[in-house]
Amino acid sequence: MSPIPNPIRPLALLGIDDLLSEEERTIRDTVRRFCDDRIRPQVADWFEAAEIPARDLAKELGSLGLLGMHLEGYGCQGTSATSYGLACMELEAADSGIRSLVSVQGSLAMFAIHRFGSEEQKEQWLPAMAAGEAIGCFGLTEPDFGSNPAGMRTRAVRDGSDWVLDGTKLWITNGSVADVAIVWARADDGIRGFVVPTDSVGFSAPEITRKLSLRASVSSELVLEGVRLPADAMLPEAKGLAGPLSCLNEARFGIVFGAMGAARDCLETAIDYSRSRLVFDKPLAGYQLTQRKLADMAVELGKGMLLALHLGRRKDVGSITPEQVSVGKLNNVREALAIARECRTILAASGVTLEYSVLRHANNLESVLTYEGTSEVHQLVIGQALTGESAFR
């Protein structure tokens, strides 16, 4: 049997494009071209050097309308949630660190101001953040409190009409390049959010180095030592953990799509490699074991993409629930990581170099698996929805 001259790409197997509107395909294709032209030629070098031109990229991403693209007004594009998800898919197909930059900017920092901020806070920060002229970060996780944010130790104390913040946050994307930090702290009346300019006295953001994952991304510690803020720095509409958790749900939604982008890139890379690599005078793609691997991965990729689109449609009509986002995050990141690892076996020794993307994606997905809620946390969210019993304590 002669080889098929033009085999289909993995997502064409289930006709995914037919499920998208013309506008959604246009947005997806625009982001894909940007990644092809700007990100892919350099991302391996950024990953190896653990350096990224975050400020330049933020302005370029802002000029495309990708920062806070699913928010309304204040310079934001007001696209559908599904369009935002498709953009995340293309960004993460290039690298998880690039999608993280966009997710933290739009779905965490900007979303917090947009949903919970005063009109003055929105006018001050959102237009500049949408344009990429100001970078934001989101300070929730602490050294001893990741999955349990209710235990946070960062304090906000009233001093006259001012607030004084003390505490430490850890694993904060964009932290050391940010112009503004959304910091969550414990006040006398519960958890509160604050808009903290990073040039405030007592604020510092040392960068975390020696990472083996998300190397094309800025990760930092936030240290607040007597940071004094005016009364209007507090987000007026956020009280309790519901505020930061709703922001996290926004970011998790983007990951549901983003993880499928990383998986798709790995699978396409493995397919292309297997067709050109000769083993015992025959293309690696022509062996049954290779085709079994590729077929199984394509099926999981297609299922994950259908799940992402289903959740996107639900979000667009306002019917999505947190446990449904947990289903998407749990399944799609878990399957994406499995696909990346399996693709590495097809590339064999070539798969451990930065010439190919698969192990870079696998390393990144190790972080994506545990941030914005570990797999175990999402399993417990789903378990509680199914049983009505909380197993968190």
Structure description:
The protein is built from 10 helices and 11 strands. It has 393 residues and is α+β, with helices and mostly antiparallel strands. The protein has 3 domains: 10-130, Butyryl-Coa Dehydrogenase, subunit A, domain 1; 136-239, Beta Barrel (Butyryl-CoA Dehydrogenase, subunit A, domain 2), CATH 2.40.110; 243-387, Butyryl-CoA Dehydrogenase, subunit A, domain 3 (Up-down Bundle), CATH 1.20.140.10. The mean pLDDT is 95. A 4-stranded antiparallel sheet has the order 4-5-9-8, covered by helices on one side. The protein has a 3-stranded mixed sheet with strand order 3-6-7, with helices on one face. Strands 1-2 form a two-stranded antiparallel ribbon. Helix 6 (242-276) runs antiparallel to helix 7 (288-316) and helix 8 (322-347) runs antiparallel to helix 9 (358-368).
Keywords:
alpha+beta; Butyryl-Coa Dehydrogenase, subunit A, domain 1; Butyryl-CoA Dehydrogenase, subunit A, domain 2; Butyryl-CoA Dehydrogenase, subunit A, domain 3; 11 strands
List the helices and strands and how they pair.
Blueprint: H1 22-49, H2 54-63, E1 72-73, E2 76-77, H3 81-94, H4 96-116, H5 119-130, E3 136-139, E4 155-159, E5 162-173, E6 180-187, E7 190-197, E8 203-204, E9 219-229, H6 242-276, E10 278-279, E11 282-283, H7 288-316, H8 322-347, H9 358-368, H10 375-387
Parallel strand pairs: 3-6
Antiparallel strand pairs: 1-2, 4-5, 5-9, 6-7, 8-9, 10-11
Helix pairs in contact: 1-3, 3-4, 3-6, 3-7, 4-5, 4-6, 6-7, 6-8, 6-9, 7-8, 8-9, 8-10
